[in-house]
Amino acid sequence: MPRSTGARVAEVAAPQAAAAQAASGLRAFDSSDEQLLLASCGRTCVDQYNQAQALVSTDLQTFIIDSGG
After folding, report:
1. What is the pLDDT of residue 69?
2. Range of the domain at 46
3. Gap between the Cα atoms of 63 and 49, Å rounded
4. In a domain, 13, yes or no
5. Which DSSP letter does residue 4 get?
6. 6, 31, 37, 41: which one has the fewest Cβ atoms less than 10 Å from its Cβ?
7. Is residue 21 part of a domain?
8. pLDDT the model gives residue 23
9. Per-residue confidence (pLDDT) for residue 28, from 0 to 100
10. Percent of the chain, pLDDT > 70?
11. Alpha carbon 31 to chain centroid, angstroms
12. pLDDT at residue 9 tops 90
């Protein structure tokens, strides 16, 4: 069975978020953080968190290019 678009996005977003956190000096998102989010609001919450972290850590020029500008 093919994976959902959300699962594919999460596979891309998580490594991007981790790399962005490392570059920005933010504490890395670890398994205990993920477990807290999973228990609180499920996989969707973890995926949204990873996507938000990747977005926050994106520089302006990359954001503009990624947004089609």
Report:
1. 80
2. 33-61
3. 17
4. no
5. P
6. 31
7. no
8. 62
9. 77
10. 62
11. 14
12. no
**Six-digit token string for 32:** 């205990």
Residue type, 58: T
Q: How confident is the model at residue 56 (pLDDT cuts 50, 70, 90)?
A: confident
Evaluate whether residue 51 is within a structural domain: yes
Burial tier of 69 (Cβ tally within 10 Å: 0-12, 13-18, 19+):
exposed
Query: Is the separation of the CB atoms in 36 and 28 below 8 Å?
Result: no
Structure token pair of residue 63? 């954001």
Neighbours of 30 (CB within 10 A): 8
Helix axes 43-56, 31-41, angle to 10 degrees: 130
Rg of the chain over all Cα atoms, to the nearest angstrom: 13
Q: Which residue has the tokens 């977005």?
A: 55
Number of domains in the chain: 1
Put simply, whether the predicted model's pTM sits higher than 0.85 gets the answer no
In a domain, 19, yes or no: no
